[in-house]
Amino acid sequence: MAFDIEMIKGVYSRMAERVDAARKVVGKPLTLSEKILYNHLWDGNPTTAFTRGKDYVDFAPDRIACQDATAQMALLQFMQAGKSKVAVPTTVHCDHLIQAKDGAAADLRQANSVSSEVFNFLESVSNKYGIGFWKPGAGIIHQVVLENYAFPGGMMIGTDSHTVNAGGLGMVAIGVGGADAVDVMAGMAWELKFPKLIGVKLTGKLSGWTAPKDVILKVAEILTVKGGTGAIVEYFGPGATAMSCTGKGTICNMGAEIGATTSTFGYDESMERYLRSTERADVADAANKVKEYLTADPEVYANPEQYFDQVIEINLSELNPLLNGPFTPDLSTPAGKEMGEKAKANDWPIVVEWGLIGSCTNSSYEDLSRASSIAQQAIDKGVKMKAELGINPGSEQVRYTAERDGILEVFEKLDAKIFTNACGPCIGQWARYSDPKNAPKNSIVHSFNRNFAKRADGNPNTHAFVASPELTAAIAIAGRLDFNPMTDKLINEEGEEVMFDEPTGWELPPKGFEVKDNGYIEPEADGSHVQVIVDPKSERLQLLTPFTPIGDDIKGAKLLIKAFGKCTTDHISMAGPWLRFRGHLDNISNNCLIGAVNAYNQQTNFVKNQLTGEYGGVPDVQRQYKKEGIKTIVVGDHNYGEGSSREHAAMEPRHLGVAAVIVKSFARIHETNLKKQGMLGLTFANESDYDLIQEDDTFNFLDLNEFAPDKQLTLEVVHANGSKDVIKLNHTYNEAQIAWYKAGSALNLIAAENA
Ligand code: SF4
């Protein structure tokens, strides 16, 4: 059911030929990352050596995974492609829309009631188009993927940044925006800039209180939150092979926190053990036959400096348990005295109020068993819990097995709250306060990945520190940020001094994994009869209608906004409370560009309506232009549309009637998203022309009927006093993308081809 062994065998069967061909064209031994990339070229056998960090390359991923928040718009778009089935194996996972409040059973009931229309929609679309559906409570997307779908040497994309978690099982797994996922679902190639490569050599061995989490916390300290940008991080060395597969997953997971494209490890015995333990012996057998292709060539690891763009070496035997934070995952401090001093100097609350264990980062059986060994010691040694403890298991399979093996009972004896197998407190879905904005300053420790302000509980005053599950448990029991379990004593209920022994645990359940209902729903073989129902009165979901082509006659267009300075996709389509409307294009369009700064008055969401001369919010003013049938343009500064790849930032202006976005420069993904939505994304040939644009300007495109690759477009800018400037605009549209523009969107074109 869950995984497709024939697909995996197909990937392996072509590996030798393609990797050998790649080695020839590259002219030197290959890293694992290169082997996987070259084996997934859209065009088949490699004939060119790509330049890392420069060439854009088309790939053919093996799988797609979507989570419930991002899947809504992705699937609404896919429905427009006119396909009867997704082109590559795809799964949808309901995990983000579940609050953590009263405990698993009550919280799941509540989520199923509050978000039923979204879950029902996702389930019916999945059923119709051959998509595997994991219902609410089944688990967190990345843990479920690791348990069921990830395989060594595979390539997957997912509409979530922590898709990279699957690198723990030797994949190249990359988080993408919904638009990219839709392309691949519809049978198109997926484009990626050929990544740079960072090698991390792990020597020594983890022991005692150090855990895989400490490896990535250390890497984050070294590389910072930006150091991995545009690169795949490939881990190798004896320290890597000695680590569990789920531990490797933890390290790859938090590669997102250093901005890495993804991270991966070579195939080894820990992966084989994990595959066999999760009932995928056939994948392990198939992988064993192509072992040498599932790790780098031996020359690479012998002389990594010659093959990677950057090499880092970490001796695991010298690594200490770390706490990273608050407010950023790269601020690293060794547990204990040093943390105490830093907390004092920075006025971070020393008392820890909560410890949270779980999330997609650290919710494996091994994580829970090691943390429970500390909890068990607290019980055995008579130590009272000082902070509160919350656990969210990564999947129903992990939860069921951990319950069977008495692990959850240990936590429960310490009054821990067991939350749903879902994201919960990791994504601001922790109903900790009734009024989070005004909640008090406090510290928490968690084993999650992100810790920026408000991430867990919406309270800007919560100082969140990231640590391994075992250290999180120890600090929650001690209730102090400066607690060092290796040296510090606690006073038990008898008034005696006691110390923790080192954590212990099982890499994999000794009695094997077990689960009654894993929460998976297989789609029907032929879903053509399945009705996808969306209530037309729904606030949260809206079926899309194809965009009408903008055409080649744009005359008399008005300026909607000239954005000043940084304008990220978050300024264009804000997150926070708007996430609720992700599946409803018209409703979410009420946040369109409300975060962009108006260059004429330095205010946000306050632009001139040229029809009335009055000022109003961007979406309101734009809706009035649309009503009058007037096209508009948006002008922007450098790197317009940087940040998350969310497609809403392109769909909203398109939906509201913006025809063109003209900027000094684009963030590439956003530029592509504009193209996909059938809009004009253009740049000033002369950057200083940005300054020519005035608040009351009207625009005429003079030669859009000659729109062609590598040919500038000409724009006449008519100022309020009647004077005119004629300026040149550059673009990067190729023939295919111009066809998208002419069709109204890329999906319109695909639908027309399928009709
Ligand atoms: Fe994202 Fe947290 Fe959910 Fe992981 S657990 S997928 S990081 S929200």
TrEMBL record:
<dbReference type="InterPro" id="IPR050926">
    <property type="entry name" value="Aconitase/IPM_isomerase"/>
</dbReference>
<feature type="domain" description="Aconitase A/isopropylmalate dehydratase small subunit swivel">
    <location>
        <begin position="559"/>
        <end position="687"/>
    </location>
</feature>
<dbReference type="InterPro" id="IPR036008">
    <property type="entry name" value="Aconitase_4Fe-4S_dom"/>
</dbReference>
<protein>
    <recommendedName>
        <fullName>Aconitate hydratase A</fullName>
        <ecNumber>4.2.1.3</ecNumber>
    </recommendedName>
</protein>
<dbReference type="InterPro" id="IPR015931">
    <property type="entry name" value="Acnase/IPM_dHydase_lsu_aba_1/3"/>
</dbReference>
<keyword id="KW-0479">Metal-binding</keyword>
<feature type="domain" description="Aconitase/3-isopropylmalate dehydratase large subunit alpha/beta/alpha">
    <location>
        <begin position="35"/>
        <end position="479"/>
    </location>
</feature>
<keyword id="KW-0408">Iron</keyword>
<keyword id="KW-0456">Lyase</keyword>
<comment type="pathway">
    <text>Carbohydrate metabolism; tricarboxylic acid cycle; isocitrate from oxaloacetate: step 2/2.</text>
</comment>
<keyword id="KW-0411">Iron-sulfur</keyword>
<comment type="similarity">
    <text>Belongs to the aconitase/IPM isomerase family.</text>
</comment>
<dbReference type="InterPro" id="IPR006248">
    <property type="entry name" value="Aconitase_mito-like"/>
</dbReference>
<dbReference type="InterPro" id="IPR015928">
    <property type="entry name" value="Aconitase/3IPM_dehydase_swvl"/>
</dbReference>
<dbReference type="InterPro" id="IPR015932">
    <property type="entry name" value="Aconitase_dom2"/>
</dbReference>
<dbReference type="InterPro" id="IPR018136">
    <property type="entry name" value="Aconitase_4Fe-4S_BS"/>
</dbReference>
<dbReference type="InterPro" id="IPR000573">
    <property type="entry name" value="AconitaseA/IPMdHydase_ssu_swvl"/>
</dbReference>
<keyword id="KW-0809">Transit peptide</keyword>
<dbReference type="InterPro" id="IPR001030">
    <property type="entry name" value="Acoase/IPM_deHydtase_lsu_aba"/>
</dbReference>
<keyword id="KW-0816">Tricarboxylic acid cycle</keyword>
<dbReference type="GO" id="GO:0003994">
    <property type="term" value="F:aconitate hydratase activity"/>
</dbReference>
<dbReference type="Pfam" id="PF00330">
    <property type="entry name" value="Aconitase"/>
</dbReference>
<dbReference type="Pfam" id="PF00694">
    <property type="entry name" value="Aconitase_C"/>
</dbReference>
